[in-house]
Amino acid sequence: MKEEQRELYSLIINQLVYDGFINEATKLSESTMIPCPIKGEASNRLHSFVHSTSSANSGNSSSVGGGGGSVGGKSTDADDDSMLVEDILGNDKIKGVDFDNDNIVPGQKMNVSFLTKFITTHKNACRCAKFSWDGKFVATGSSDTSIKLLDVNKMRNYNQTKNETSEDFAPSRPVIRTFYDHTQPINDLDFHPSASILSSASKDGTIRFYDYKSSVKRSFKFIQDSHSVRSINFHPCGDMLLAGTDHPMIRLYNVNTFQTYTARKINEHHHGPINQLRFSLDGSIFASCSKDATIKIWDSNNFSLITTLSNPHSGEEPTHVQISRNQKYLLSCGRDSYVKLWEISSGRVVQSFNTGVSKTNPHKNRIAATFNYTEDFIITNDEQASSCVVYNTRTGEQLQVLSGHNQPVRGIAASPVENALMTCSLDHRGRFWTEDTATINQQQQTL
C-alpha cells in the first residue's frame, strides 16, 4: 500500500471514530493494518478537507493543497518536519563507504567522540534497540518483556546526573511510553518507515504492532508464530515484513493481509534458527544469518537466493548482518569474535576486526556491530565485554572506546540521520550516546 493510500485510509478511520462509527472503523483498521485511534484522539480532518474542497469549487480563493488536511501532500496537521524514507534514500550528501572510489589519505586522522547523554533502565537485561527512520525516536526491548519508547531530542538535551536509577522520572521525560504486551523477552524491534507503527518480536512467538503516537500501551494487532521470533525488519515500502524464527525458513509477511511467503526452493533455506534479517536501504535485496554458520543474500523481488557465504566466521555462527548503502558491502559479526566487511559481488573480505571478546562466556561472545549513519565508523563490542569500540571503516583504526556499562553489551543501534547511538547491556540499561562536539573541535585544533 502506497503512503498516499495509507494517509487516505487513516483519514477515513479517524473520521469514522470521530463520528461514532467505532465498529466500522475497527473493521477497516484491521483490514488495512492502520492504527485505529481511541474516541478522544480521533481527528476531524477528512470533514475539514471535504469542506475546504467544496469551498474551493464554489469560488473560494484559498488553495486546497495549501491548507491543512491535504491527502496527496504533506499535511499541516501532521508532523511538518517528519522525514520520509525517500528523504533518507535521496540524501546525496551521504554516499556511504565505497573502497573503489574513496580517497584514503595515509596518516589522515578522523575525529570522533561519543558522550553518554541519557540512561534508561529496565527491570532486566536490555537486549535490543532500534531508531525510527527519521531518527526522532528510539525503542529499547528487554528481558523483562517491556518496550520503552524514547524521544531522541529530549535525550540529547538531557543532563545525565550521577543518580542512574531515577533518570526516567526526570521532568523532561525522555521516556514517552512503555509498552507491555509480550509474555517473554524481546528479541528485536523495528519502526514502520512511514506510519507511526512500532513492531516487536519476542520469544513468546508473537510479532506485535503498536501505534506509538497513541496513548494506548497495548498492541493493536499481532502475528502468532509457532516458534520464538528472533528477528524482524520492515521493507522500506512498509508493505512487507521479514521475520526470522527458531525455524530455518524465513517468513515474509504482507502487513496488510498477514499472508505469508517463503522461498520456494527447499535447498535454498537455512538449516538452523535465524539470528538476524536486514533489508538493503532500497529493499531490493536482504541478508540473513543463521545458527547453521552461514550468511545468505536474497533477491527481495522474487525471494530467490543470490549467494551464500558458507563459512564466514570460521565455523562459528554469525550473529548480525547489515548491508551498506550502495549495496556493495555486507557487515557481519560472529561468535568467532570477528567483525568483517565483505564485498558482496566477490565474497572477499575487505576489512576485518578482531574484537578480542572472550569465547568462554556465551553472553560475552554474542557480539553486535553496526555502521554509523555515514558508514565512516563501525561500532562493535570491545574485548572488555562491558564496553564498545568505534573503528574507522576504511582504515580499521580504533578511534574510541565507549565505557559505562558494567555488564556485557548485548545490542548496538545507530541513528540513520546523525551520529547517535543506543547501546543495550545485561546491566539492564540502555545508554544513549551523541557526539561530543566540544571534544571534536578541540581535537581538530590540535592537528
Automatic annotation (TrEMBL):
It holds the Pfam family WD40. Residues 52-63 have a biased composition (Low complexity). Residues 51-79 are annotated as: Disordered. CDD domains: WD40. WD repeats lie at residues 119-160, 179-214, 267-308, 321-352, 402-443. InterPro entries: CstF1-like, CSTF1_dimer_sf, WD40/YVTN_repeat-like_dom_sf, WD40_PAC1, WD40_repeat_dom_sf, WD40_rpt. Keywords: mRNA processing, Nucleus, Repeat, WD repeat. GO terms for biological process: mRNA 3'-end processing. It is found in: Nucleus. GO terms for cellular component: mRNA cleavage stimulating factor complex. One of its GO terms (molecular function) is RNA binding. PANTHER family: CLEAVAGE STIMULATION FACTOR SUBUNIT 1. This is Cleavage stimulation factor 50 kDa subunit. It comes from Polysphondylium violaceum.
